[in-house]
Amino acid sequence: MVAAAVTADGTTEQNVPSAEHPASRERVLALSSWHHDWSGLRVAVLGLGVTGFSVADTLVELGARVRVVYGAPDADRERLLDVIGAERFCAETNPEQLGDLAAFGPDLVVVSPGYRPDHPLTAWAAERGIPVWGDIELGWRLRDKTDRIADWICITGTNGKTTTTRLTAHMLAAGGLRVTPAGNIGSPILDALRDPQGYDAIVVELSSFQLERLGEISPYASACLNFADDHLDWHGGREAYWAAKAKVYAHTQVACVYNRADAETERMVEEADVVEGARAIGFGLDSPPPSGFGVVEGILVDRGFHAERQREAFELVTVAELAERHLAAPHMVQNVLAASALARSRGVEPAEITRAVLEFEPDPHRAQPVGTVAEVRFIDDSKATNAHAADASLRAMQQVVWIVGGLLKGVDVDELVAAHAHRLRGAVIIGLDQEPLAAALGRYAAGIPVVRVAPGEKSAADAERVMREAVRAAAEIAGAGDTVLLSPAAASMDQFADYGDRGRRFQAAVRELE
């Protein structure tokens, strides 16, 4: 691929001349409002995905000179960049991109979430004292475009983020607030902030990648739902991953919501530097203390925001009612409790929370029932992209034929396999990282049938073939009363477009059996 630079007027050039910086570092760092002067600022945006384009579009609107540097062509977004007046440079290799970045001479670099902390382009900028922000930090600085400045309710965790973000937004809407989910959930924070009507609250799902470059934001309320090893290869180790997740609580104003059964989330709250007066609110499946949310005799209750919480609690919803909504698995109950705590912190009444939960539609591909064929249940849990998520789904099953595998992201699977070996009737391994799974199954589940499906290339045809073979192999192993569970404990990008693509292909393959 030949590197190509395109300027705002649509002309292509192979070498972009360097220029004097029109802005000092101090001027850049002082920019903390939509209404400040961003004009003439030279901003390099790294990445042309959904986030990268939203950053470029926002900064062009503010009058900055924007140059997007990225590695893979995207005809639709490239066309839109030309329309809005942003410059662009596409090249496959880091040295080519770095050369263009240096020639552009940015005053500020804004990074899409997928760029590692040690990426050569961000390292180059940091070495020269050029500020490097993520889209969340930029969004916090620009949150005052309208007079209706939203409270930010921030949610992270190894698992459950998207469901809890959607639930919280649904509850806030039931309470009469104008609200939207944004962030890692798929809708960029900058798109929400530019809505001309503004919002009362934005529920911001934050990945560990976004938290790595969070900046100094101050959420109204925040939550880390759980913590387990994930993305260790990206962050460089467990402590770095923990430190990234813990940032969600920094400068929280009203409520720090944590998981009572997860000591790491409690430690995050204990070590957080929060606004004076912010409360720690625990949630769990046990009977709650006066400051918490929990379950009493099959009823989800709030003791955190009851005026007489030493003796009484608000009843929210029953576990039986959650079961009717496919929300009664333990990890899903925890998500409901966490969302309820966040919504209550913003003033939503218990009756409004009850109504919101009973109207809520669960996420696709998260413990989603697909159907029953020959007395065998098929469950799509493709969203389980790590061991912690797969563990939660496996715990809700009895006799399982497990479809597992993909990109393991440096995580050891031995503990997961050992914990659930007793419930496995068989396993079907897919994806590139098959050896660790096969070895663990051999050690802890010797004697069960294990089928390995050859991965092939990353293509639509091979993705369809892999999932069809996996489903058929699992169906052959399973007997009446068993569950075939797609819960990969791994990322999907080795074979599929994303976890949604993986889940849809699983569901299509199940339908072929019927």
Structural features, described:
By secondary structure, this protein is of the alpha/beta class. Strands 2-1-5-4-3-6-7 form a seven-stranded mixed beta sheet, with helices on both faces. A hairpin with a 2-residue loop joins β17 (368-373) and β18. α7 crosses α15 (350-359) and α19 crosses α20 (499-513). The protein is globular, with a radius of gyration of 24 Å. The two termini are 46 Å apart. Mean pLDDT is 92; it is low at 11-20.
Uncertain segments are 11-20
Mean pLDDT: 92
Query: Helix/strand-derived class?
Result: alpha/beta
Query: How many strands?
Result: 22
Q: Main sheet, how many strands, which sense, barrel? A: 7 strands, mixed
Characterize the overall form: globular
Rg (CA only): 24 Å
Number of separate helices:
20
Strand fraction band? 15-25%
Helix content: 25-40%
Strand order of the largest sheet: 2-1-5-4-3-6-7
User: In angstroms, what separates the terminal alpha carbons?
Assistant: 46 Å
Question: Which keywords apply here?
Answer:
20 helices; alpha/beta; 514 residues; 37% helix; 7-stranded mixed beta sheet
Q: Gist?
A:
With 514 residues, the protein is of the alpha/beta class.
Task: Please outline the helices and strands.
Blueprint: E1 4-6, E2 12-13, H1 25-30, E3 42-46, H2 50-61, E4 65-70, H3 75-84, E5 87-90, H4 94-104, E6 108-111, H5 120-127, E7 132-134, H6 135-141, E8 151-156, H7 161-174, E9 179-183, H8 189-193, E10 201-205, H9 208-212, E11 221-224, H10 232-235, H11 238-246, E12 255-259, H12 263-271, E13 279-283, E14 293-296, E15 299-302, E16 314-318, H13 319-324, H14 330-345, H15 350-359, E17 368-373, E18 376-380, H16 387-395, E19 400-404, H17 414-420, E20 424-429, H18 434-444, E21 450-452, H19 460-477, E22 483-486, H20 499-513
Parallel strand pairs: 3-4, 3-6, 4-5, 6-7, 8-10, 8-11, 9-10, 11-12, 12-13, 18-22, 19-20, 19-22, 20-21
Antiparallel strand pairs: 1-2, 1-5, 14-15, 15-16, 17-18
